């Protein structure tokens, strides 16, 4: 009613009155009439807004939702709800509302990182620091002690020092310094990712730290068990992966699994189905492929494809063969069905908001976690990325892997199907590698969108997500990772292409 009143007095009635009075050439009457109505409006607005500052006054919700049900809970006052809404809207704005600054139309996070990267000599100084600091951090945390695979990746981080030396001194084979090799990995991927992850983590606090994730998770509960074969609470993991990070989602999954809340099968489905890279990494992929103009389409299609592929893989080998057993051996008890309401979702979100730390602490913790992640991946991106490009250039390994996907890129009529299939084959090493390969080929929008979507929906790659999963108690074998990765690539291609042809 208030919104209608506002539109009526500010837009509809003035315009109609103005047109009528122009014909009569009576402008003074128009102005006096409009002035009176604006005065009435302002009085109404003042009364309306004053309700916000009356702590604990639930009359506001009755005014906002005429005939609606009064909130049963009295423990959240109007200020709490207002701050919950503002924090949520700000987080949504930073990640999902494109704005135009200069010639660029993109989301605010992208504008901010672009501004930071314009600092003189930023790519050189920051890149050198992150690689060296990342190796020091790996030595300090003794990352090689976790498993043999972690030992391999620690060795790859040390290899990154070779490429660091080449980049600084400009000494090495001429091919290394071509635009699609070391400069691409350094500037286009490594520096970009390690810049946006800490910055993105700060603003992710507004999506993950103050109840929005839990609020959304409640609405997703009724679909989790029938669609994904997982409990309703796994919705939090799903949301955490997209708006947070795979490491955050895996942390949640492992903790809940060890508390005997997830079974072995449920934990395996959640880890391999929901723990994809966050929106910040998706931005990097989109920027590399020059599709930021279609950011919202890219994000929502990717989310849909990823979750649909997860629903399918949960029903096929090897995930369907995982036992319904708890971590401790406790007997499996199915989750009871329950109805979901807006009031329950609001209650859940507001409870999370009330239990959250202060804004400063949440932002600080998120930045530290994001910076640690950046330190962990910086030398890996350089080492694994360059080795991946060299293997693609001088060995047939990715060509061979690519033939697994060639029939599917061929039947979906992708541009240069063999090249795209081989590029997607590189995603097992690092999910960011297919993007620069396809970007350099100058292919069309649909092909770029396909590669961007599959790079995220495939979830599993050896530079980050697989080692993190192997560091948990979740019961997955090495062969499981490979089989699920192949399944997810094929399904993502087959599901994405009809959607892309329809949308674009």
What are the SSEs and their pairings?
Elements: H1 2-24, H2 27-50, H3 59-64, H4 78-96, E1 99-101, E2 104-106, H5 108-117, H6 122-141, H7 148-169, H8 182-208, H9 212-228, H10 234-243, H11 246-258, H12 264-274, H13 279-288, H14 295-313, H15 342-355, H16 359-394, H17 397-402, H18 406-411, H19 417-425, H20 434-441, H21 445-457, H22 465-470, H23 478-503
Antiparallel strand pairs: 1-2
Overall pLDDT score:
81
Q: Compute the gyration radius: what is it?
A: 26 Å
Oligomerization state of this entry? single chain
Largest sheet: 2 strands, antiparallel
DSSP strand (E) fraction?
A: under 5%
| Proportion of residues in helical segments | over 70%
The tally of helices reads 23
| Overall number of domains | 2
Which structural class best describes the helix and strand composition?
mainly alpha
């Amino acid at each position: 009613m208030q919104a209608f009143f506002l539109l009526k007095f500010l837009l509809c009635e003035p315009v109609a009155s103005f047109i009528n009075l122009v014909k009569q050439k009576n402008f003074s009457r128009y102005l006096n009439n409009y002035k009176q109505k604006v005065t009435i409006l302002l009085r109404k607005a003042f009364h309306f807004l004053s309700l916000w500052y009356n702590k604990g006054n639930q009359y506001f919700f009755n005014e906002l939702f005429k005939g609606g049900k009064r909130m049963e809970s009295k423990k959240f006052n109007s200020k709490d709800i207002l701050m919950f809404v503002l924090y949520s809207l700000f987080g949504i704005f930073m990640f999902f509302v494109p704005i135009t600054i200069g010639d660029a139309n993109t989301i605010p996070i992208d504008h901010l990182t672009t501004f930071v990267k314009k600092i003189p000599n930023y790519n050189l100084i920051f890149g050198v620091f992150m690689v060296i600091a990342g190796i020091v951090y790996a030595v300090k945390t003794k990352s090689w002690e976790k498993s043999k695979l972690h030992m391999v990746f620690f060795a790859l981080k040390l290899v990154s020092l070779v490429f660091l030396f080449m980049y600084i001194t400009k000494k090495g084979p001429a091919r290394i310094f071509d635009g699609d090799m070391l400069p691409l990995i350094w500037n286009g991927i490594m520096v970009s990712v390690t810049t946006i992850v800490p910055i993105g983590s700060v603003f992710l606090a507004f999506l993950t730290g103050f109840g929005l994730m839990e609020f959304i998770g409640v609405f997703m509960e009724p679909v989790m068990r029938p669609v994904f074969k997982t409990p309703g609470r796994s919705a939090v993991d799903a949301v955490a992966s997209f708006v947070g990070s795979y490491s955050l989602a895996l942390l949640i999954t492992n903790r809940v699994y060890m508390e005997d809340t997830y079974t072995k099968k449920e934990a395996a489905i959640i880890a391999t189905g929901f723990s994809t890279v966050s929106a910040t990494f998706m931005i990097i992929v989109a920027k590399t492929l020059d599709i930021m103009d279609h950011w919202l389409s890219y994000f929502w299609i990717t989310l849909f494809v990823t979750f649909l592929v997860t629903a399918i893989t949960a029903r096929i080998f090897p995930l369907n063969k995982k036992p319904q057993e708890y971590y401790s051996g406790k007997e499996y008890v199915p989750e009871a069905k329950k109805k979901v309401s807006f009031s329950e979702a609001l209650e859940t979100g507001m409870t999370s908001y009330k239990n959250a730390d202060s804004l400063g602490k949440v932002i600080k913790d998120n930045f530290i976690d994001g910076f640690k992640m950046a330190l962990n991946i910086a030398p890996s991106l350089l080492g694994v990325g360059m080795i991946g490009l060299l293997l693609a250039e001088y060995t047939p390994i990715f060509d061979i892997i690519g033939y697994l996907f060639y029939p599917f890129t061929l039947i979906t009529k992708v541009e240069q199907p063999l090249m795209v299939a081989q590029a997607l084959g590189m995603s097992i090493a690092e999910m960011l590698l297919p993007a620069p390969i396809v970007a350099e080929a100058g292919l069309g929008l649909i092909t770029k969108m396909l590669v961007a979507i599959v790079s995220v929906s495939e979830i599993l790659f050896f530079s980050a997500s697989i080692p993190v999963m192997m560091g948990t108690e979740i019961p997955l074998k090495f062969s499981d990772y490979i089989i699920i990765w192949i399944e997810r690539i094929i399904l993502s291609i087959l599901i994405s292409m009809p959607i892309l042809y329809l949308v674009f």
